[in-house]
Amino acid sequence: MKKMCVASQAGKILLILTGFLLHVTLTDVRSAEQPSQAISEIDRLLSACRISGPIDFCGEPVPVHLPDVRERLEKELLLMLADSAQVILWLKRFNRYRPVIETHLKEAGLPDDLKYIPVVESALLPLAGSPKGAMGHWQFITDTGQRYGLTISPDIDERRNLTASTRSALRYLQFLYQEFESWTLAAAAYNMGEDGLKTEIFFQNSRDFYDLHLFQETQRYVLRIVAVKLILGNPQNYGYRLLPSDYYLPEQTVQVTIDLKRPTPVLILAQAAQTSFKTIRDLNSEIRGYVLPDGVRQITIPAASADGFNSRLQTLMTKLVSEQNSSVYIVQKGDNLTRISEQLGIPVRALMTLNRMNGKSVLRPGDKLFISPMALAE
What is the DSSP track for 17-71? Predict the structure, then answer.
């Protein structure tokens, strides 16, 4: 019996030793792999810095033979490539939005390289904003956006609409090119404003972007666009080998013109398009709330629901008007928002939004409260 116990213990010790040795071996293998992977990444970044051949932006040479310019471009390349997750997202999104931007560039007769500007400006995110109040794919501030025809109001912000903002951005860039007779300077002015760039040109007596001492953000801006062009133009050169299935596809959508006689809930538009509220808001990022103002407008809907959309919308609007009385609650004596909320099962904040109320609003018996999203058509 004792012999069996001794043998059993010896077996356990042997198993423990075997496991320990296996752990040590695997640890050594992993340790050997990690430096190898790190070296591979360093090699990739170093290779990216070995810029060869002529480089241009909109047909204008980038003087990479100048040490200062080469260093600035290398910096932008390295910083971008160090964040591979972001680069992959750029590549995926660029595939979705590039056709629209390229079409407008071709129609306007402008250089194809301008399509890389919104990648730098917003990472191609329609809801991207800046602390200075810029918004959308092309990062228009309010004044400039309105000057170039964009509607910017509490209900609609066309800076977030790809088609509208691209048209306006290209008009602005055309104006800047006419002012500076250089696409490189036009891009710099797009970043810092034409008056600011004119002032620097005046004091420095130079019209060569690469020889101008500008704000650091602007000095980096054009080189960032060039770096994006190099990476997105030939991603495989930098180690990004995406499969066709990896890319985000352009949405299958159509634009429809609607003539709204009254403010219309987005929910009604979604129902007419046989889709969800979220889909309509995602396809029409310029819509800021729950209702679309009256007037003639273009909206984007799924292509599959285009047939019969306007007739369905008309039917829903007619039904909405006929049922409007059922969307109203008459305030009773002793009522408050909390009590009404509990009684009707509607969140207090929703009641406040429907009735444009704030914390100082007072309810009186006999007041009418809208209690349905459809009441937004009032």
Answer: HHHHHHHHHHHHHHHHHHHHHHHHHHHHHHHHH---S--EETTEE--TTSHHHHH
What span, in angstroms and rounded, lies between the C-alpha atoms of 82 and 80?
A: 5
Where is mean pLDDT largest: 110-114, 248-252, 320-324, 353-357?
Answer: 110-114
pLDDT digits (tens, 9 = 90+) for 248-284: 999 999 999 999 988 899 999 999 999 999 999 999 9
CA distance 149 to 165: 9
**Which sequence positions are flagged as catalytic?**
121
Task: Kindly list the structural domains of the chain, giving each domain's residue range(s) and its CATH number in brackets, ordered by start.
Answer: 56-246 (1.10.530.10), 253-322 (no CATH), 326-377 (3.10.350.10)
**Residue 157: beta bridge partners?**
152
pTM of the model: 0.81
E strand intervals along the chain:
56-57, 60-61, 253-260, 264-265, 291-292, 295-302, 328-330, 368-370
How far apart are alpha carbons 158 and 299 in whole angstroms?
A: 12
Q: Quick one: which of 371, 327, 328 has its CA closest to 348?
A: 371
CA dist., res. 18 & res. 296, Å (int)? 78
